[in-house]
Amino acid sequence: MFYLSRIEHTLRVPPDILRLPLAEAIKVELEKLFLDKVVSNLGLCVSVYDIRSIEGGFIFPSEGAATYTVVFTVIMFRPFVGEIIGAKLKESDANGLRLSLGFFDDIYVPVNLLPQPSRPEPDPRKRGRVTWIWDYNGEDFIIDWQDEIRFQVRSVNYPPVPIEQLNESKPFAPMVITVSSSMNRHLIWDHWILMVQAPFHGGLMQNKLSRKKEKKKGFRKTSSRAQKKPSSPEMASSFTTPKLTTSTTLLFSKNLSFSLSSPFLSLPVNLTSLARARSRSIFLNDHHHHRQRRGFITASAESENGAEIGRKYDFDLFTIGAGSGGVRASRFAANFGASVAVCELPFATISSDTTGGVGGTCVLRGCVPKKLLVYASKYSHEFEESHGFGWSYDNEPKHDWSTLMANKNAELHRLTGIYKNVLKNSGVTLIEGRGKIVDPHTVDVDGKIYSAKNILISVGGRPFIPEIPGSEYAIDSDAALDLPSKPEKIAIVGGGYIALEFAGIFNGLNSEVHVFIRQKKVLRGFDEEVRDFLGEQMSVRGIEFHTEESPQAITKSADGTLSLKTSKGTIEGFSHVMFATGRRPNTKVCILFNLLEVPGGISRFMKLLFVKA
To answer: Which residue range forms the structural domain that includes residue 122?
Structure first.
């Protein structure tokens, strides 16, 4: 897997290269220092991606070079345990096999690392070229050109540096990747080690001599170049050494095939933007005998985000989900000149597999409608408290539930219309329907296919109701915001802020409210004084709390009322039982029908693509 790492480094730039523009001179020095080297615990530096900032330029006493503090990003290669790297046989001779890998250009498998016993024989179909035959339990298996050899990463570690390094060369070190391999016949080979060697200070001459020897043996070295691309995505995690401060982002692989359980890997293009993708040397070691054979590898540039060079797409960005995150991301991308489309399900106040609406959870079934109900519920308390200030009423104030629901829904329609206009005015194409990912650049919306250079997943979440007997009689927060009539007596399961907001709403609208929580107090994780005070004040208002009780079943009687059985007993006579027990992402029910079949598919492909509304 490839990572994009942001590094802050103090760098001395010799005066002889300051004839170049400053950024170019610094890039030359950075490539000398980092390119083709392994940074301990980060991986192999594939290329210097871009320079984010340059500060300083001081010449300190006794030094003849200017010192700068540089923030830049580099592309690192470090596979994760369990990752599959696929290879195809390119050629073979009496010395062994030559394999072509997804992002490694060449790698040699010497005779001693072939599955034993194996023997070479001339292949009449290939003009006498050598073909290796593996004798497996008395049966011959030909290792031919159609065979796929897969390397599965077993471990990645950074052994102690074998020679003393200069202080300025740290934290460079070797990286050892232990792998096992198998052919498409599912026959497992021995454990191997791929060791990416850092040409750290003191080892450069040895590395050059090794390459010269390999060239005489016919090993080929290749390289690729790429053009400058935009700056990197937002960083995700951090790593610090005495010399470096880095932030790292995990990137998905370009050739991730959703029809295969063992996808090939290759370098995403938007990462090779600024730099040369130079060749690096690796060792292929027998895990047991530690014999070495040198080959060459090259990271190949593709295009931005792994897209194929020259391919035409319908859109630069296709967003699945038009909630708060999806609308904002689409609008901003369009304002910066990208061609953008966003798909969303038809409008409904209650979300489902077939309904949604532009605006998402907050606008349609979260913040906005809930606050409207909060405002409606507070008047009953104000009417009651107004008597102490001299107010009197000839008749008791009455509340009409249907009027509240109608006006609430009218406001939601108004707001979703505003969001649609925002997208339209920004030049974003709005497509109504359910989006499904076909491959990394294709989306199916209700049978119509769209292609995009980038796909953004912004599908939000929905309420979660635990599986207990009778859970089909329960409602969630979506339904609670759109009830046809006011609850007369409602049980609310949950002790978080959503449960308490609804308890306050229905209490203010004169419903009998019971709250069931598993803890002794509400709002776990909040300040203790806040928890105590809120519980007391809500109890004073008439809300009844049932603490340390877990729901076990819901039953419905002949008259339509509901009974809630808990770990402490059963309470009857509820018109509604509501669960406010958390939310779950919509990914499984809304999209990703292909990725769900791939082991680790969502986690591999979606690291950078999810937007949480």
So the answer is: 84-226+278-306
